[in-house]
């Protein structure tokens, strides 16, 4: 078993335990945190529909998208700060206040009446809270596991898929009998209870570093590693187009009379399919290599949009929508699950994982902030089928570009791994 060193960090002989009660309780906490953060944001199609049809019906699709994407922006952009805060003070000291902020944001949203009130409550307050909920479980789960890191982080990431299934159904069934405001208050109460459990379960194998870790907040050293930089550039383009189906597939479905009843369930199918997508590729990544799995997954994200979603613009049908939602949900979930183990493979020291994930999420933040509003502008400026054709093309092409950069990074990483194995094999032969 591993041993911990001085309070500033692990001893030189430390190796992740790869299991045990403390580790699996932390996985449970991470799952709940993803359920309440990314999982809730995956229900954005419900909010877009409510805002466009009722509360903010005088605002454009692009303006509404800024509210939804600003949550993603803060969740990712503050990941750098939150990751280092976990290293400095431990996961509980980040998770507890962040949970309070997120619940407060939902309560404030229940009283909002204007665009800027909604933006501040949901986009800013809830977004800040979600950032602190999203990050700790990812960081400490990666520190608890080595050999089974992909599986463990896949289970954590699966929380967002489960949340993406539960929250749309919950919100849809609560909105009509209870109204928007009361539905949000019930949601806040449920989230408060779940996060109390997560805060009790989460822990870290390392003692807090204290102020020694503060330099990581503004460090750009990570981007000097070429493989890490290429991976981040690729992820930027992937995130630019990734959330298009989650927001606009329900809209497209609702505007087709014979398929309008499927609108809410298109979100559920997307997120439901992402559940095995978060777990199966992560397990395969542990066996066959993280980059060997993420490269085909990212290409499939682009291909599925271009080959399966575009035909639905001109020939909408039930089977096609369900098949596309299943395929894209699975591969998008695979990307979101395997990307963190890939970042761990790019770390020279596992204690850098919080800062490396944080830096990566800063890049994802800018892409997430601008991707949907760009698609919203395309939607607002064009007419008829061209509206969906334009935003779908943007989504598919950007993810295809991202797949190229991720592949470039993967080829370099696999080359480094192969070279290390040859060197180790040569050393063993000399010793014999």
Report on the architecture of this protein.
This protein is mainly α. About 80% of the residues lie in helices and about 0% in strands. Residues about 1-15 have low confidence and may be disordered. It is a multi-pass membrane protein. This is MFS transporter.
The helix/strand order is: HHHHHHHHHHHHHHH
**Structural domain count:** 1
Query: Helical region count?
Result: 15
The rounded Rg comes to 21 Å
Task: Specify the biggest β-sheet.
Answer: none
Distance between the termini: 29 Å
Low-confidence segments: 1-13
Beta content comes to: under 5%
- The residue fraction in helices comes out at over 70%
Tertiary shape = globular
CATH superfamily: MFS general substrate transporter like domains
CATH class: Mainly Alpha
Transmembrane segments: 21-44, 64-86, 118-140, 152-171, 183-206, 227-243, 263-284, 291-312, 318-338, 359-379, 391-411
Family: Belongs to the major facilitator superfamily. Monocarboxylate porter (TC 2.A.1.13) family.
InterPro entries: MFS, MFS_dom, MFS_trans_sf, Proton-linked_MCT
Membrane topology: Multi-pass membrane protein
């Amino acid at each position: 078993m591993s041993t911990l060193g001085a309070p500033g960090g692990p001893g030189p002989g430390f190796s992740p335990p790869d299991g045990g009660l403390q580790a699996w309780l932390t996985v449970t906490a991470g799952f709940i945190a993803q359920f309440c953060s990314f999982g809730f944001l995956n229900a954005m199609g419900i909010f877009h529909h409510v805002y466009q049809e009722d509360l903010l019906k005088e605002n454009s699709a692009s303006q509404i998208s800024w509210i939804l994407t600003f949550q993603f922006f803060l969740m990712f952009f503050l990941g750098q700060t939150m990751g280092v805060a976990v290293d400095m003070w431990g996961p509980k000291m980040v998770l507890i206040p962040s949970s309070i902020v997120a619940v407060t944001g939902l309560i404030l949203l229940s009283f909002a009446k204007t665009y800027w009130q909604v933006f501040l409550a949901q986009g800013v307050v809830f977004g800040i809270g979600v950032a602190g909920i999203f990050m700790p479980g990812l960081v400490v789960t990666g520190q608890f596991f080595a050999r089974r890191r992909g599986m463990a982080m896949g289970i954590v990431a699966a929380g967002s898929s489960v949340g993406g299934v539960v929250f749309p159904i919950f919100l849809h069934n609560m909105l009509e009998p209870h109204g928007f405001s009361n539905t949000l208050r019930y949601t806040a109460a449920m989230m408060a209870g779940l996060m109390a459990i997560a805060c009790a379960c989460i822990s870290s194998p390392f003692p807090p570093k204290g102020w020694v870790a503060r330099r990581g907040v503004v460090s750009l050293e990570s981007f000097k590693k070429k493989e890490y930089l290429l991976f981040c550039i690729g992820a930027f383009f992937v995130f630019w187009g990734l959330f298009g189906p989650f927001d606009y597939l329900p809209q497209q479905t609702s505007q087709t009379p014979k398929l309008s009843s499927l609108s809410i369930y298109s979100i559920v199918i997307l997120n439901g399919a992402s559940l095995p997508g978060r777990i199966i590729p992560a397990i395969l990544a542990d066996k066959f290599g993280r980059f060997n799995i993420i490269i085909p997954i990212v290409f499939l994200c682009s291909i599925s949009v271009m080959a399966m979603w575009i035909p639905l613009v001109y020939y909408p049908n039930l089977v096609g929508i369900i098949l596309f939602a299943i395929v894209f949900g699975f591969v998008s979930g695979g990307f979101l699950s395997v990307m963190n183990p890939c970042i761990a493979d790019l770390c020279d020291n596992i204690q850098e994982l919080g800062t490396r994930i944080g830096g990566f999420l800063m890049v994802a933040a800018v892409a997430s902030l601008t991707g949907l509003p760009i698609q919203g502008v395309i939607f607002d400026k064009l007419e008829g089928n061209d509206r969906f054709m334009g935003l779908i093309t943007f989504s598919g092409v950007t993810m295809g570009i991202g797949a190229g950069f991720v592949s470039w990074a993967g080829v370099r990483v696999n080359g480094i791994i192969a070279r290390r194995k040859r060197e180790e094999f040569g050393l063993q032969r000399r010793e014999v």
